[in-house]
């Protein structure tokens, strides 16, 4: 079995449910995060992945929340058979994260999603783990330091905690909806402005893959990532999708209007 990854100073450990031998023949990973019930964005990303020769998909959490198609997004995710970790919205809908965590718009979306999903879908969300790790990489929705708190990795200072804990050459996170690639520096991690990076053997890397369904870097296109373990290369990519259709569905579902508006702004 894969090694467990330590979670913060309390020493709690989270084991992956997937045996390490599965990853030994994998060359190309498709990594994505924060779909948030946006079916149009999710389908656009899956269409883009069809040209990438992906061996294994990895999902970094939050398949639900904000968007109007949580059921269909969960169904599509299951079809991919990805290695998956939970997001705060996933656990919020499943009752494993307190409603006090969410702002008024997120809370409204969580409560609406609870009403839409059936018991099996909620049980699926409840069963998602906090950490996944194999010999190639590590996944967590937020910071690796206390992953159950879903802390944001927003800068090199907050990233340092995760980089210090990281046991694999590269780690992937989401949650902030802002893509970036960081690599280990002498004191603090350093950020590269490139979205396509060749990994160096003496460095560790932390990658935020951005958001499929609700980007917040002022680029409304859906974000996704490809990691080639043979080429030692990671790349964050973008694809356009039918934003207007996704917005109309949110409004029709009577979810907060701001959740539709922000899709067009990338905020």
Textual characterization of the structure:
Helices cover 29% and strands 21% of the residues. With 267 residues, it is α/β, with parallel strands linked by helices. It has one domain (21-241): Metallo-dependent phosphatases (Purple Acid Phosphatase, chain A, domain 2, 4-Layer Sandwich). Helix 7 (243-252) runs antiparallel to helix 8 (257-265). The longest helix is centred in the middle third of the chain and has 13 residues, at 104-116. The chain is globular and about 50 Å long. The termini are far apart.
Number of helices: 8
SSE ordering: EEEHEHEHHHEEHEEEEEEEHH
Spatially, the strands of the biggest sheet line up as: 5-4-3-13-14-11
Q: How many domains make up the coordinates?
A: 1
Provide a short characterization of the protein structure.
The protein is an alpha/beta fold and 267 residues long. The protein has helices at residues 39-49, 70-80, 88-93, 104-116, 119-126, 156-165, 243-252, 257-265; strands spanning 5-7, 12-14, 28-32, 56-59, 83-84, 131-133, 137-140, 170-173, 180-183, 190-192, 196-198, 205-208, 222-228, 233-239. It is globular.
Key attributes of the depicted protein:
267 residues, Purple Acid Phosphatase, chain A, domain 2, 6-stranded mixed beta sheet, 14 strands, 21% strand, globular, disordered N terminus
Can you lay out the helices and strands and say which pair or pack?
Blueprint lengths: L4 E3 L4 E3 L13 E5 L6 H11 L6 E4 L10 H11 L2 E2 L3 H6 L10 H13 L2 H8 L4 E3 L3 E4 L15 H10 L4 E4 L6 E4 L6 E3 L3 E3 L6 E4 L13 E7 L4 E7 L3 H10 L4 H9 L2
Parallel strand pairs: 3-4, 4-5, 7-8, 8-12
Antiparallel strand pairs: 1-2, 3-13, 6-7, 9-10, 9-12, 11-14, 13-14
């Amino acid at each position: 079995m894969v090694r467990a990854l330590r979670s913060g100073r309390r020493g709690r450990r989270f084991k992956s449910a997937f045996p390490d031998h599965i990853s030994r023949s994998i060359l190309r990973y498709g990594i994505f995060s924060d779909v948030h019930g946006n079916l149009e964005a999710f389908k656009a990303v899956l269409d883009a992945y069809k040209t990438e020769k992906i061996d294994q998909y990895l999902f970094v959490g939050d398949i639900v929340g904000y968007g109007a198609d949580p059921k269909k997004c969960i169904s599509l995710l299951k079809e991919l058979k990805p290695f998956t970790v939970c997001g705060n919205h996933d656990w919020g809908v499943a009752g494993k994260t307190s409603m006090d965590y969410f702002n008024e718009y997120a809370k409204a979306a969580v409560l609406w999603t609870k009403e839409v999903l059936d018991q099996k879908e909620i049980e699926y969300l409840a069963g998602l783990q906090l950490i996944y790790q194999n010999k190639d990489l590590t996944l967590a929705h937020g910071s690796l330091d206390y992953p159950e708190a879903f802390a944001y990795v927003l800068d090199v200072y907050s990233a340092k905690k995760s980089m210090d804990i990281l046991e694999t050459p590269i780690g992937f996170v989401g949650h902030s909806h802002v893509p970036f690639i960081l690599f280990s520096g002498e004191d603090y991690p350093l950020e590269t402005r490139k979205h396509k990076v060749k990994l160096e053997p003496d460095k560790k890397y932390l990658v935020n893959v951005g958001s499929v369904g609700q980007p917040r870097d002022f680029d409304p296109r859906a974000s996704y990532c490809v990691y080639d373990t043979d080429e030692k290369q990671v790349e964050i990519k973008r694809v356009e999708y039918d934003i207007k259709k996704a917005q109309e569905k949110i409004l029709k579902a009577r979810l907060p209007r701001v959740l539709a508006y922000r899709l067009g702004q990338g905020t």
